[in-house]
Amino acid sequence: MTPQRKRLTREESRQQTRSRLLTAAAELFTERGVNGTSVEQIAERAGYSRGAFYGNFEDKNALVAELLQHRTDRELDEVRALTQDATSGADALDKLRAWNRARAPHLPEWLALRMELVLHALRNEDLRPLLGARERLARDAHTAGLQQAFAAHDVTPPADPAFLGLIAHALEDGLLIQRLLAPDALPDDVVVDAYALLLRSWTALAQHPPRADDDQPRPPQPS
């Protein structure tokens, strides 16, 4: 006797529909761009009608907003899960290296979708504040990680930790683009290599801060 499939509640059915629409939109945005994708195409890819789309999202911008939120939250949750049980800073870096290597085969699609969502939000004033809030979450995660590392080394950060987190976050985006454009020249975990180098440099700077006159212009030396 074939077991009966559990019937979904109304809320479960609604969440399933939203999830399928988001997945379909992510695929299409990656393939065609946000502006090149219509509501009808998203609904068709997900297996629903146009009415099902508008029953869940006010418009395409509302769907983009939810994708931005979902992607940021998922990535932060994955990184936190990796590092929260790390036994040391080195162990945390090893876990992050493994995570970057595992997602490397999907980097073209991941990065294409990220760039599409960012560009669409930048072109739409209503979405720009949400993009800013999502980016702040990512920067805050970098800042928190750096503060933990500095505390583990018992040093005072050489600059405002939020500024250092901003540098790390911006460098990550740039390096991922470079990794995609030069896959044979850069390793899958190049972002972690750069982060580890920055952390060593900043820690050394904190342990041996420059003298006050080190930043002053030096007079030319006689020949």
What does this entry show, briefly?
The protein has 223 residues and is mainly α. It contains 9 helices and no strands.
Can you walk me through this structure?
With 223 residues, this protein is mainly alpha-helical. The chain has 2 domains: 10-57, Orthogonal Bundle (Arc Repressor Mutant, subunit A), CATH 1.10.10; 60-207, Tetracycline Repressor, domain 2 (Orthogonal Bundle). The protein is 70% helix and 0% strand. It is built from 9 helices and no strands. It has helices at residues 10-32, 39-46, 50-54, 60-83, 89-103, 107-123, 128-152, 161-181, 190-207. Helix 1 crosses helix 2 (39-46), helix 4 (60-83) packs across helix 6 and helix 7 packs across helix 8 (161-181). It is elongated and about 65 Å long. 19% of the residues are buried.
Q: What is the strand and helix layout of this fold?
A:
Elements: H1 10-32, H2 39-46, H3 50-54, H4 60-83, H5 89-103, H6 107-123, H7 128-152, H8 161-181, H9 190-207
Helix pairs in contact: 1-2, 1-6, 4-6, 4-7, 7-8, 8-9
Key terms:
223 residues, mainly alpha, 2 domains, 9 helices
